[in-house]
Amino acid sequence: MVQITYRDALRQALIDAMEADERVVVIGEEVGRYGGAYGVTKGLIDTFGGDRLIDTPISEPAIIGAAVGAAMTGLRPVAELMYVDFLGMTMDQLTNQAAKIRYMFGGQIGVPMVLRTQGGTGRSAGAQHSQSLEAWVMHMPGLRLVMPATAEDAYHLLRHALTMPDPVVFIEHKALYTRKEEADLTTAKRPWGKAAVRREGQDVVIVTYSRQVHYALEAAEALAKDGIEATVIDLRTLNPLDMETVIEHVEKIGRVAVVSEGPMTAGVAAELAARITEECFDFLHDPVIRIAGEDIPISVSQELEAGSVPSPALIGDAVRRLLS
Amino acid sequence: MTDTRPSASPSASNADLLGLYRTMRRIRTFEERVGELFVRGLSAGSMLHLSIGEESAAAGVASAMRPEDTFTTHHRGHGIFLARGADPSRMMAEIAGKETGYCAGKGGSMHIADMALGHLGANAIVGGGIPAVVGAGLSAKRLKTGSVSLAFFGDGAMGQGILYESMNMAALWELPVLFVCINNQYGMGTRVDQATRNEAFDERARAFGLQGAMVDGNDVEAVAATAKDLVDAARAGKPGFLAISCYRFFGHARMDKSPYRAEEEELAGRQRDPVKIARAALLERGLAPGSALDALDTEIAAEMDATIDFAAASPAPPLASMFRDVFAVGEPEPEPVRTRLDRVLSKEIR
Ligand SMILES: Cc1ncc(C[n+]2csc(CCOP(=O)(O)OP(=O)(O)O)c2C)c(N)n1
Ligand SMILES: [Mg+2]
């Protein structure tokens, strides 16, 4: 066990992966000399050199497209998008190229690349640097999607992503980089596509991922003071999606809130709610409720920014209402 | 098509060196106050990009514009908007995320916009504001407004494909458009020669059939004169491209201490100070006595001090305002999550 930040765990995963596999290269803006906009690749260029930490011009479509080609021809690229908000610029390369190449070409070849990026609110970064766009990715057949909440998961899921045969979109949360926690970074292979039950309680299941895991746990502690015990499930990967764990707990408890920072409409929470309702209908005492981001852009004002995504208070209030 | 109305912009009404100096000094002082706003913990976040060292680009090009002209800027756009006549207090309030700001606290430093002054918006997507001027040029041409549309962006945007698509269209359709690249030598920590093999950016523009020029930002009069030729040509249907070289005096944003460049380089770079150089030229040519310039500087300092007070005293936007302006006024607003939950959770069927 080590005390490590989310950021350092990610860096360690890259170091270990690059040491273990010569084919791994990191390509993106400011990943080399600068060390990454959020410091994840700091110092890596000193160890691995500019041939493996490849600084690029500000050319997102070509960064992702080049990673696609490199992945098809022998490298294992980690392409970094500085903000998930730039996904829109790269969407053709990601969705029409990376996601479809194996299928379209009849299974001849895959695209074993990782697109690392970060999203979410918390820095007053404004409408174009604070979004949660995971639903776009989750909607697209052919893409894996990882959204770690903890340092330990950040490490193991990134290591695992770099062994996957298909494109993986790996979305970090900008508000988690400085979170420090106990983590076991021993390299024994961990299960992939398996949710983590972060807390167990008999009254309600809260299903979530990424930063909202911590908000849900905070809400659960407050609820416990009122005698309400919540189970909190951290999905870790949205594709593959571990419905088995979710169903197991929902069937036991019968009350569910799904929580997502992204905008509510047609979002991740909507998909989860639909699946839970389909699969667990006879076990539900109440409708599945969605606690999600407002259907609005993110403001620069701290007040509006914080007010437009779920908070521990909102989760707690909604769960209390659900149980009352 | 020619319009001889005098410009509302403070610099363009006085494109002589003293006017340009005044505009640049206002920008410099404003940006220093933005730095102060951050240090005092009053700014909305730390993603504040100061245009210190680049004042000649804003002042010089703005002096060639007319009131009916439109423009977009990159994330380092405070100076350009000030040169176009912005109210610095409303800018500062926006940078603080306050209700009294240009965008009611929704946009922030990287998204200041003001349709009244032709500012079609600052952008936090590198290159994101460029194609809009092609559209604005189309409007101007078709509606015969006589206006030119200018896109301001950094050297980093020279890496974006959308710039080349936009330049090609502007040239093809002979639009009243000017592309203005403010080459401050860096895109974050990447020096311009680490992002391209050919820094002669004007050659790229000429390859598309645009008029292309490069000018040294040390010399604000040269910037103004070159910009005037290009803006006039654009108005006559000959779109152009102008690259202005300068030096980004400080880090990329407020948290960046520029560890990737040597102190000697920074010190040398800061010698390329268009404000200082213009001041020296004013004195040397006897265009203004030192006492008058001191008085002007003092007046500007007081003006800009007041912007912080205004921003600090302004209220945060009310929470309910977050649902406003997703769509046009009068259209239904998105339903708040809390409202929906209240509704769903109070349903009798339970
Ligand atoms: C599409 C896109 N990619 C990356 C970024 C992150 N980023 C913000 S500013 C910047 C550097 C821009 O450099 P330049 O265009 O030269 O403008 P400057 O900051 O020097 O004024 C980068 C990489 C962004 N905002 N948008
Ligand atoms: Mg630059």
Give the key terms.
heterodimer, A: 324 residues, alpha/beta, Rossmann fold, 7-stranded mixed sheet, 14 strands, 38% helix, B: 350 residues, 8 strands, 11% strand, binds thiamine diphosphate, binds magnesium ion, DH_E1 (chain B), oxidoreductase (chain B), pyruvate (chain B), PDH_E1_Alpha_Subunit (chain B)
Describe this structure in words.
The complex is a heterodimer of chains A (324) and B (350). By secondary structure, chain A is of the alpha/beta class. Chain A has 2 domains: 2-183, Rossmann fold (3-Layer(aba) Sandwich), CATH 3.40.50.970; 196-323, 3-Layer(aba) Sandwich (Rossmann fold), CATH 3.40.50.920. Helices cover 38% and strands 20% of the residues of chain A. Chain A has helices spanning 6-20, 44-48, 60-72, 87-98, 101-104, 134-138, 151-161, 211-225, 243-253, 268-280, 302-307, 312-323, and strands at 2-5, 24-28, 53-55, 76-80, 114-119, 144-146, 168-173, 180-183, 196-199, 204-208, 230-234, 237-239, 256-263, 289-293. In chain A, strand 10, helix 8 and strand 11 (230-234) form a beta-alpha-beta unit. In chain A, 57% of the residues are buried. The longest helix of chain B has 24 residues, at 290-313. Chain B is of the alpha/beta class. Chain B has a single domain (12-317), classed as 3-Layer(aba) Sandwich (Rossmann fold), CATH 3.40.50. In chain B, strands 2-1-3-4-8-7 form a 6-stranded parallel sheet, with helices on both faces. Helix content of chain B is 41%, strand content 11%. In chain B, helix 5 (130-143) runs parallel beside helix 6 (161-172). Classes of the chains: A alpha/beta (324), B alpha/beta (350). Chain A: Keywords: Oxidoreductase, Pyruvate, Thiamine pyrophosphate.
Give the proportion of residues in helices of chain B: 40-55%
Task: Indicate how many domains the architecture of chain A comprises.
Answer: 2
CATH architecture of chain B: 3-Layer(aba) Sandwich
Question: What is the CATH top level name of the largest domain in chain A?
Answer: Alpha Beta
Q: What number is the mean pLDDT of chain B?
A: 95
Number of helices of chain A: 12
What is the number of strand segments of chain B?
8
Biggest sheet record of chain A: 7 strands, mixed
The main sheet of chain A orders its strands as 3-2-4-5-7-6-12
Domain Transketolase-like pyrimidine-binding (chain A): 4-179
GO molecular function (chain A): pyruvate dehydrogenase (acetyl-transferring) activity
Protein name (chain A): Pyruvate dehydrogenase E1 component beta subunit
EC number (chain A): 1.2.4.1
